[in-house]
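Exercise 7. Given the components listed, write out the predicted structure of the assembled complex. Treat all entries as one system.
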Amino acid sequence: MKMSGAKAIVECLLEQGVDTVFGYPGGMILPLYDALHDTTALRHVLTVHEQGAAHAADGYARASGRVGVCIATSGPGATNLVTGLATAYMDSVPVVAITGQVPTDVIGQDAFQEIDIVGMTMAVTKHNFQVKDVNKLPEVIRYAFRIARSGRPGPVLVDVPRNVQTAKIDFYNLSPQCEGEWHLGAGSINLIDEAVKAIKEAEQPAIIIGGGVINAEAHNEIKSLAEHLHMPVVSTLMGLGGFPGSHPLFLGMTGLHGHKAANNVIHNADTILAIGCRFSDRVTGDREQYGAQKTVIHIDVDPAEIDKNVMAHIGIAGDLKKILIMLNERAAAKDFTNWWEVIRAWQTDLEIEVDESRLNAPLVMQNIVEQTKGIDTIFVTDVGQHQMWAAQYLKIEKPRTWLTSGGLGTMGFGLPAAMGAQFAMPDKKVIHFAGDGGMKMTGNELYTIAANCLPIISIIINNQGLGMIRQLQHAFYNKRYTACILPSKVDFTMYAKSFGIHGVNVDTLAEFKTAFRRALQSKQPEVIVVNIASENLVTPMMLPGASLDDYVDL
Amino acid sequence: MKQVLSVLVQNQPGVLVRVASMFSRRGFNIDSLAVGVTQDPDYSRITAVVCGDQATVDQVIKQLDKIVEVVAIQNLSHTSSVTRGLALLKVRANERRTEVLKLAEVFRANVVDIQENSLTLEVNGDDEKINALAELLMPFGLLEMIRTGLIGLTRGDNTIYKCEEIDEND
Ligand SMILES: Cc1ncc(C[n+]2csc(CCOP(=O)(O)OP(=O)(O)O)c2C)c(N)n1
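Answer.
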């Protein structure tokens, strides 16, 4: 069929099963917007800002496992996507971004709103393209989706000059190609046998899971393996939900603000089985010490992660599911009773006592766990103290129900990502957390939420400051608080009200309980502002770059 | 330690930038980078001389492998191979001209330009040979020197295309 390049893009998106795209128009992408006009099967969500569109596409992808799509115009539209793409890149999220570009005959002449977005995003995308020949457009869009999804997922950008969008081509539909299946080779099977042997020799083993488990949807395989071998499981920030949060084998989050019991388990383990995690510096602290005196078995989809940060004794690269299934078949259960006795003692001795004298974030999180029992929820956070409190106290039971910016730690991620998640999962209750700092960064997306009547509950942990910065200055800069105090010049409930969204301030746990119970019933967007003391600190806190048992005295 | 990597890439616009920026972004040190088209115009070959311990070079190879346009990678240092670079050296040469020409002969360098006060030599070979000649020419007054990155091929009928086949079976 003869059609314009723009129409062909739309056809390709439909081929890929895309139902929602997030974007913002501008001159160089208008042909695509014109083609969207007649397409009822594709919902376009107009965000407030392109950053919002990128995070929303990311949230959509994290919540659903499908590829998220965002669209922006050339120049400033494209540059506004960059933080969102970088966020998706660092957390391996499949996103396809389509940007408009100035016509091919003026590229390189500093035309109005021309920017080399391909050059600019090379470092923050898995791959990117500029399409100069309309005949290549369909194959590039299809390839972009394949790259975004396959292996270790990631964002892909396709830059399309305006004249390529308007040029005509003969278009033929093509159903999406299935990925060639990955097979365990002889080399991998040998390595699995080595891993089996290492586990057999272990006295104090532990499993550490990362975000790769969620991407690979290998949560059931991990659960079977852990239950079969009766091994303790800890998770990185990104892996939360990859193992049921209330499972007796689960010890919580490990890393900088991890649970002490979880960190102790890794620190004292003689063998660790790291699955789908990349040993980020926030997880390992001192990397030399981290892997010392233990056998490290590392399984990841990306071969480049093996031996990148921590040297593995046994490194297996490939499809997590297949590897885990074979490992589970071959590994024999063993009695780790002694090890478990030690672990259980840590769990009771090192439990953090939550201060109940005043409203604080841990109390709020604990209450949310209680009130959301039996409800299908997705928790989305921004970045800062509230993120860590949420990670520590919410019990994340299922994969794709904990969305957080881990690798890049992008403030402003939360609200637009929550929006994307709600579009992807209309039947789930999306609960968003932000600090009063991050909420000011992308809070205007409340407008999009209101316009689309998304029943998201936004919980703003208001400590009148950039809490995490304050905490760092408290711990490492002699309490010289600089640029972290946010005077209460905004009432977030009135801010919400300006979008027609109901908001409430709470100052006590009782008030929170009532407000949250009410919000859970609501079919409308809701904002709850939780006012807490600005002095509250996230504990425990490891000394950055130190070993896993070295904590800051707060 | 230096190792020579030969990389077969699809000849797409920007592929050299992609490879080069990966090196700089990840803090890998490279001595030289040479790129040119192959017998098939759809493919180019990049030869990179990488400095670092074995773990670093292994990581370089894995990171290269993640670049979409990279088709195959061969470590020339791990197989028997020939590597060559080309250098042009402009030397001051008036009264000691014959000495310079003698040296050129020993190194099988060609004289490509000769003037009253200078002459320019062209020499090819591996890094060591070029370095040796440059050092010997220094006392005469080495006015300028320019060299290409190293390129190389394995000896025998082994080719990079065989690496590609192995890759696909894995
Ligand atoms: C875009 C961006 N800028 C700066 C930072 C550095 N940073 C990390 S946490 C934080 C403070 C966050 O404050 P707030 O949003 O109020 O959350 P809180 O820590 O108080 O829970 C800052 C500024 C960041 N992570 N992202």
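Discussion: Chain B has two domains: 2-80+155-162, 82-147. Residues 127-141 of chain B form the longest helix (15 residues).
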